[in-house]
Amino acid sequence: MPASIKDVAQKAGVSTATVSRVLNQAGKVSAETRRKVLGAVASCHYVPNANAQQLKRSTSRNICLCVRGITNPFFAAFLRVIERQISLRGYPLLIEAVDDSQDELAVAQRVLNERRLCGLLFLGGTYLHQAEDFMRLGEVPRVLMTFNAPASVDRELYSSVIVADRDISRQAVRHLADLGHRRIAFMAKSPFEENTTGHLRMSGYQDALKDAGLPFDPSLVFDCEYRPDSGFSSMKAALTLADPVSAVFAAADTIAIGAAKAVLSQGLSIPRDVSIIGFDGIDMAEYYHPSLDTVLQPAETMAKRAVEILFELINGGANQHIVLPAELARRGSTGPALL
Amino acid sequence: MPASIKDVAQKAGVSTATVSRVLNQAGKVSAETRRKVLGAVASCHYVPNANAQQLKRSTSRNICLCVRGITNPFFAAFLRVIERQISLRGYPLLIEAVDDSQDELAVAQRVLNERRLCGLLFLGGTYLHQAEDFMRLGEVPRVLMTFNAPASVDRELYSSVIVADRDISRQAVRHLADLGHRRIAFMAKSPFEENTTGHLRMSGYQDALKDAGLPFDPSLVFDCEYRPDSGFSSMKAALTLADPVSAVFAAADTIAIGAAKAVLSQGLSIPRDVSIIGFDGIDMAEYYHPSLDTVLQPAETMAKRAVEILFELINGGANQHIVLPAELARRGSTGPALL
DNA sequence: TTGTATGCGTTATCAA
DNA sequence: TTGATAACGCATACAA
To answer: Do A115 and B50 count as a contact with CB atoms less than 8 A apart?
Structure first.
């Protein structure tokens, strides 16, 4: 049984109110009393019971990060930066993993009611939330990262930090088309489900095909998990088509790496036989051999910006919607199509 | 302001005690009353305030996972399995990232006092904790994964799930020596700091050198972070030594991948010019080209076993220390030394 | 400057 | 079967 404020008060020979005052640096306390209290705190190894504090306080300091796909390596950098930025500000961080079968806003609402949160961060999610879903969260500040809400939802209901997924995907695929590729595969998670990131990036892919006067062939679209094995098997299928592909745009580096392995293990060469572009910019894409071209998302900046916005909101600021620039990093995994 | 139990009681026309009884299925409640209460709960979107519950309850259901190195890709599988196994049992999981500068047991103790925990899991950590550090955690069940405590610490003070780091490292390096390699680099985090995993694996490396009659050359030991860039620069250095290495044993696949990239980007070949063995068994090692030999840790099994042990402990079981078999996965990144 | 007393939302004990 | 009420540990308004 850990020590309570009463134990400290007794040991210091003061009242619990005084102990509380010392610890919260509220009100005037004599130097002598402070010394006694701090001594007692130390000797008891006293740590305030957060449950009691938050029950009592009107304002909690809990921040919850809801992550859809916590094992996605791309999110590792976010996790690191967010954890650091939050704890730098002296707030505790609660990390909640959101399952494929769950709704991130529903998860958030449960956590919100369970522990009075002062802020919510979302990392990864779906675009299918309606205004009332957000309103149910009340006034608690919230920032969405790597996704946002449909245009129909009032922008005052949330903040967001994203990249222009559709536009940058279009640029990436245009690059492949410019190199002469005509059979370009697209790999993403749930590309045919509206309101997903995968669908958004496929729209960019379709835009670029249209720009280049290429037909959209649904059999070149592969529904993948964000894992190498999934990219691997999709690529194997893409290579054995009657009219095989000469290039791939993968909506995640994890998928791109699996696809690259499929190419290389068939004895084919990158980029001579197949060109590959990934998405995200995880370490492993750069250290792959050959290094993989990718759509570089500024993960650190996104995470940092999101936390900044969250604290501005906590301090009464207004909602913001940031679109950060993503960049097509050329590293040598794309080349001209063979004639 | 979310609804409280009082609001529910009022709406249902009963007392708060009755509401509590219905929700906790404790004591007898008439079907009619139950119906009314549940209706009121639903219409208020009532969720019990966890702070109040845990303040009042003698026994909390909170489990905390303390992770040293949360961005380590090897831990992703652990995170996924643990999250799932815990929530399957209806317990909430608190994830706490432990910084390089922090002590995991100190972090655990703070969290323990803040929120009454019923169990602690540790993923990644240092071997330098003393008995009193564990005793300070009181009776709360705890399970260490991928590390444990020095032999001097009473085994009744904790449970652990590990692989035989030293022994399997010895086998890996023996494999390289058997292939005729005489200049074998070793890369790990903090290899020269006692009580670290890196040091333990270096001991296995040294054992194997001794077995093979090879000298231990400290200039072949590289202190790395668990990141590809770190393996990359270490390997560059290793290749430019007066008497360069022909093989590497890296204590993490992330390091091995960086090392492999350094080899390949110099125009050298794996395994013809340099042999590489990694450690962990992350996806990316398998999907690298060439696929990298590695010491395969059974991450899913380790995580599952750890959670099982934790719940056995919660239900009054005794501490256990599991050493699971690790396996040297041969995939083609090692070959005979050139003459 | 310090202490007393109250209540946060919940569970559990005791009466009714 | 139900309701009134006392605690859990803490912060704070108010009194001293």
So the answer is: yes
